[in-house]
Amino acid sequence: MTMLKEILNSFPGRCHVGKKIPQKLFLANEQLSAGDKRLVKNNIKEVMVQYQISAMNSSVESYADNERQYNEVLVIEARIKIPRQLNQLTEMIHRSIPNPVFLIVAYGDEYRFSVADKRINQADDNKRVVEDIISSEWIGRESENGIERDFTKSFSGISGATNLFLLYQDLKKRVIALILAAHTGRFRLESPLTVDEQVKLFRKIDELEKLAVGLRLKLKGEKQLGRQVEINVQIKNIEDKIYQSRSLIQ
């Protein structure tokens, strides 16, 4: 059984849909830009609603408060032609669908997982505002490793949430744990940090790593010894900050 099949089989069978979302529905969306629509035409093979989880077909209750209304959670698989413009594509799908989406972007046997909380638009309660979009890197390129096995197995208890908001937060925790595992070498759901703290931490590490990459490129082209020493010190300071940040994940 492939990783994706094992993950999908973890959701209740009675919630299975397995239906395509026609391309024309995305193209008719007036909120999408011309660039978004070109992306739909040129790079999406198909978008499938694999599971539709609601109080009507599961033991998981709906959830509503002043800011959120979770009547359904959708598990959607988007198969793409070329792995590019991934952030734009992911955002476009999340913005196009008002319900919270556990999104699986698939390219061959490689997968990228994404979540995005949504709240009610206070100006129009029929619309939703997409909050922070969280996406993993690709997994499944090579033979399945320990992190990927643990990530896949973690879905076996996913249907135990009491309401749809908590179910979605459980899915979000798994995506965050997968992202953090790239920094620690192991997949772990439990953490002393809150979900928001974990998100801030991996975003901080990503920014520091980008700074370090930029400085290393600058170092290669620097001829003056004094500037080389200065840049090396900056790189070392950034590496220390990355190490300190990663130590908080353990």
Written overview of the protein:
- By secondary structure, this protein is of the alpha+beta class.
- The chain folds into 2 domains: 188 residues, no CATH class; 52 residues.
- The protein is built from 8 helices and 8 strands.
- The strands form 2 sheets. The protein has a 6-stranded mixed β-sheet, with helices on both faces. Strands 3-4 form a two-stranded antiparallel ribbon.
- Strand 5, helix 4 and strand 6 form a beta-alpha-beta unit.
- The radius of gyration is 20 Å and the shape is globular.
- The mean pLDDT is 91.
Series of H and E elements: HEHHEEEEHEEEHHHH
Compute the number of strand runs.
8
Mean pLDDT: 91
Strand order of the largest sheet: 1-2-5-6-7-8
The separation of the N and C termini measures 31 Å
Q: How many helices?
A: 8
Largest sheet: 6 strands, mixed
- Please give the domain count: 2
Roughly what fraction of the amino acids lie in strands?
Answer: 15-25%
Structural class: alpha+beta
Shape: globular
Features:
single chain, 250 residues, alpha+beta, 2 domains, 6-stranded mixed beta sheet, two-stranded antiparallel ribbon, 8 helices, 8 strands, globular
